[in-house]
Structures are given as C-alpha cells and as structure tokens.
Amino acid sequence: MASYTVKAVKFKxxxxxxxxxxxxxxxxxxxxxxxxxxxxxxxxxxxGDVDSGETFNFDATGNKNTVxxxxxxxxxxxxxxxxxxxxxxxxxxxxDDVAKKTEKALNLAQWAPVIGDWVGKARGVIRDSSNNLIxxxxxxxxxxxxxxxxxxxxxxxxxxxxxxxxxxxxxxxDLPFDVAGGPDYxxxxxxxxxx
Length: 195
Prior knowledge:
Layout: E1 4-15, E2 27-35, E3 38-43, E4 55-57, E5 66-68, E6 81-89, H1 95-106, H2 115-134, E7 138-146, H3 148-154, E8 161-169, E9 184-193
Antiparallel strand pairs: 1-4, 1-5, 1-9, 2-3, 2-6, 6-7, 8-9
Helix pairs in contact: 1-2
C-alpha cells in the first residue's frame, strides 16, 4: 500500500498585514492533520520581523517540517491526505496555546470518520468558531484534501513528489470575513510518496 508525507517547504510574505511602514509581521503556521481519523496538530516556529516581499524556508532538520501524517514522520501513511492550515500573527499570545486551541477546534474525527467529511466539517468549524477562538490574530486558513485517486495519479511511484502553492489572504480559504490589513502570503508544501 502506498504511503505519503507532506512537508512545509517555504512561504512568502507577498504583502504583510497592515500598512508596511507600521511594522513587520510575526507569522506562525499551524498544521492540523487527519490521517485515517487520527487528528494531530503541529506548528512552525514564530518567524520574526517578516516584511512584504520576503521568503522564508521551514527548518527541515530532523524532518521538523513534516506536517502530515504527524510531525517529524518519515514512514508516511496511506491517503487520502486531509490538512487544515492556519496562518497566525503572533504580536501577542502564546504559540503553544494557539496550536492547542486549533487542534481542539478541529478534532472532528468522532463526527466525521470519513476524511472528506472531516474537511467539510473543518471548514465549518473555522467559519463558525473563528471569532471566539482567534480574535484578531488569524490571517488566513485553508483546508485541503488530496484524495487517494489524486495521489495515485500524481505520484505513480515511490520517491515521486509534487509541490503545491496556497494563497492565504484576507478572504481566501476558510475565512468568512475580511482580515484587517488584507495580508497576502503564499505557502508551498511538498507531497511525497514514500512507498
């Protein structure tokens, strides 16, 4: 049976939040993975002093940038791949608390045992709970699904991989409201077939 991993590769601050001269962003990425009904959350480090136009790589040392099926995994898991990704501004607040709150909100495995259903429910939870959970710190959110069929077609043999770019902006993805300052960030992830 084929197994896969997903790694966060890099991100670009196309246009930071707010007016550029007022200060830099301190972004943090939170990844909530559903692999066969097991929901786990990992987070990146807080990237400080990020300005419009800058690109940053995620630390790949020791597979720190693996975000699916679980952090630092090297063996992978069978598809489909369901992943909810949030971009947070960390001017204030605790990054570990952000990750815990996100996992709690998206721990939907008991309600939606089918991966595709989880993706649909995750989007609804983000829309319905975002104001209570996140106040003004969430800059973008995307929930993505690569079906088993898509993975088989795009990754026909072990070692094959593809990169995909996602735009996180004021009204993109799962957010039902326009984020103040209209940030635009691009995130690249790499999906690899392990076996």
